[in-house]
Amino acid sequence: MIRAAGRIWRRSATWLGATLTVRMTIFFGLMFALTSALTLIGTQAAIARYAERMIRDQMRTGSAIFDRIAAMHFEQLAQAGRVLAGDFGFREAAATGDAPTIQSALDSLAGRLEADHAMFVSADGVIVARPPGFTHQDRNRLLAALEAGREQGIARWSGEDHMAAAAPVRAPMVVGWVVFARDMAPADLEALARLTLIDLRPRLVAPADLPAALRNGRAPGRTVELDVAGERRLVQARPVESLEADAPRLLVLEYSLTAAMAAYAPILWALFGFGVVGVGMAIIGTWLTAKRLSRPILALDAAARRVSRGHHAEVAVETRDEIGRLARSFNTMVTAIGERERQIAHMAFHDALTGLANRTLLREQMSLALARADSFALFCLDLDNFKSVNDTLGHPTGDALLCDVAQRLGDACAGGFVARLGGDEFAVILPAAAGQPARVARSIIARMAEPFNVNGHRIVIGTSIGIALAPEDGTEATALLKNADLALYKAKNDGKNGFRFFEAAMDAEAQARRALEVDLHDALVKGELELYFQPLFSLAQSRVCAFEALLRWNHPVRGMVSPAQFVPLAEETGLIVPIGEWALHEACRIAASWPRELRVAVNISAVQFRSATLNTVVLQALAASGLDPARLELEITESLFIDNVEATLASLHALRRLGVRIALDDFGTGYSSLSYLRAFPFDKLKIDRSFIVDLLEHDGATAMIRAITSLAEALGMETTAEGVENIDQLDILRAQGCNTIQGFYFSRPLPAGEVMRLLTRDDQARAA
Q: Is it the case that residue 307 has pLDDT exceeding 80?
């Protein structure tokens, strides 16, 4: 019995021990399973937070990339627009509605920019180079935006979005706008999406197309989570700069959290497997395993935090499992982001064609040097005759030439910082230790004068250089660039292919010129311009036979401004076209009140002559005044025949068909040719005053006068001598067969109100 009881006790103890072991095993198994489950849940939550944070970071990165690329394209398009809008020939074409010239200029520059669209929108809504599918409503929206002063942003036409920039064209008032655009079609947005690590499905939408959760009280640019057909999605909508105020656009980025978490499923399953296998392991093993699993995730999280703060961070790859692959993917992402950042920075600060620094980087370098109080010379260079290379050999050859110029410039400026400002303009920062500025300038000019061999063409150009010294000529980058530009302008005016240092007088001269230009712009509107009339005296009839209309400017502060001051400025700025139109109308109006046998002569400048509207202006002036066309005489100069003789002769014949007379002014001063006298029958040759001044001092001058009068007589033309100031000159001119005289000997230019009094005195003198 006792032994039986003992056996039962031992069996019970064994069973109890076994049960306790099982219970302990189950307990620790359950504890480890619970720990594993909690670890799995925590890891899943951490991965979800990390995935969401990564998606949000990528959305911020995508938005920033869009902004940078948009800003870069906007600036490139706007700068091209400003360059084209500032070109005198283009402004003239815009002012006269010369569509072929406008189209050619737009196509040329658009090709160089690789822009998808280039158009010119006139102030009255006429569009040159209208894009395909561009509707009337598209035109109205675009015109309204341009008239409101909006110059860049996303525009929509033909049912598609476009990145557009506009520049006003003034001649001198705003006559239209140059618009360059790049497409923002789905394919272009897909290219933008490839700049981020994940496909954020970027798209441009109208506010009305947003989901209700994004429209109702959400701040612009905020990222929200939406449930779309049972799928969790992160969606961000932020406004982008729109050109058209009534058609705002938003950039929408979205990514599926569900899809993001699905990529981490292998990791979660691996953790679950580790938990199942490790149920029987000791607590210490569980703890070590958990620590081992959490360490790379924490490292990834810490690295992601550093990357989000803008620092470079990588994690050590210690395994080849899912976590190791995740670490390698993370390191690849960080490297790719860094490389893209470097590419974006290089694009922002360097010229795409030559690889040189651009204007932005040049300014930064100058600011740094000025902050260090360094002494340096700033060179601004402009190539001479480069435009003719583009016009005759094409833009590809012109671009290749610019690359060769950049190479030579770098060789000639060893130790200097070389930049391309745009077009054919370059700049160099030459430190004081790199050599004397004058010596380097001569070296650059000599190198540029050597022939270039580009695409099988032998090209010879030159360069003009303006030099500003720091800190003597400026302590800010803007001031130095302006002063170097002034010196460059002076160098080109001095005959090109040379250099000039900045002088304080240049700035004063430029300021005075700008002030005079502003005053001249308002002079016509304010009625400050008036016409004086200098009589022409017929030697055969001994009476006044005509008057020459001379432009005068009576400034309220400056007084009478010399035509030698403001006429060249008006020609350079294009103001001579509206001023010349006014002068023609005014001269015809006043001459209509004179006796019918008197003619009026009006000078036509070269700029005005090349205007496509000249014939129309002449017809309008004659019609408005009622003046007989035979009483109007248009005076042109010989310089018109330099560029295009055939076009000039065609324009002269068109004017002759209107019935007006044509006189050749300043005959014999540099460009005289018997060929165009034979090609066009001028009504009159006006002998330049330089010959009249020499009449009493040089016998050769008398012979020249006789030769001109004989030639004119043989060709059936009249002759007028300008600048006659005394009786001796008059006697010689009469003896040599001159028909009419003009000069102070007979009368100075008179205001319009004194013309009739002069005619009365002339009639009385002849009667006496």
A: no
Q: Tell me, rounded to whole angstroms, the distance of Cα 409 from its chain centroid.
A: 24
Q: In the Cβ-directed half-sphere of 357, how many Cα atoms lie within 13 Å?
A: 17
Task: List the Cα angle 605/620/97 in 5-degree steps.
Answer: 65
Cα first-last separation, the chain: 182
**Sheet bearing 462-470, strands edge to edge:** 417-422, 425-431, 376-384, 462-470, 499-501
Residue with tokens 């040599």: 736
* Residues 6+ away with beta carbon under 8 Å from 25: 280
Which band of pLDDT confidence, cut at 50, 70 and 90, is reported for residue 286? low
The predicted structure's pLDDT at residue 242: 83
Could you tell me the pLDDT band of residue 750, with boundaries at 50, 70 and 90?
very high
> 486, 502 in Cβ contact below 8 A?
yes
Residues 6 or more apart whose Cβ sits within 8 Å of residue 763: 543
Determine which helix (DSSP H) or strand (DSSP E) holds 331, and give its type and residue range.
Answer: helix 322-349
- CA distances (Å), origin 297, targets 38, 290, 302, 322, 328: 16, 11, 9, 11, 12
Identify whether the C-beta of residue 691 lies closer than 8 Å to the C-beta of residue 743. no
| Mean pLDDT calculated for residue range 247-260 | 76
Which range is least confidently modeled, 9-18, 56-65, 267-276?
Answer: 9-18
Tokens 């999280």, residue located: 301
Q: How far apart are CA 702 and CA 693, in angstroms?
A: 11
**Would you mind telling me the total number of residues written for the chain in this entry?**
768
| Residue 365 in tokens | 């370098």
Residue 149, pLDDT above cutoff 90 = no
DSSP secondary structure letter of residue 631: G
- Helix (H, G, I), strand (E, B), or coil: what is residue 374? coil
Q: Report the sign of the C-alpha dihedral through residues 243, 138, 237, 193, in that order.
A: negative
CB 584 within 8 A of CB 611: no
Task: Look at 418 and 23; give whichever has higher pLDDT.
Answer: 418
More confident position, 515 or 259: 515
Among candidate residues 681, 687, 742, the one with its CA nearest the CA of residue 719: 687
Lowest mean pLDDT segment, chosen from 59-73, 128-142, 402-416: 59-73
**Best CA proximity match to 286, nearest among 667, 636, 30, 53:** 30
Instruction: Show the tokens assigned to 83.
Output: 């360059």
3-class DSSP state of 613: coil
720 φ, ψ to 5°?
-125, 130
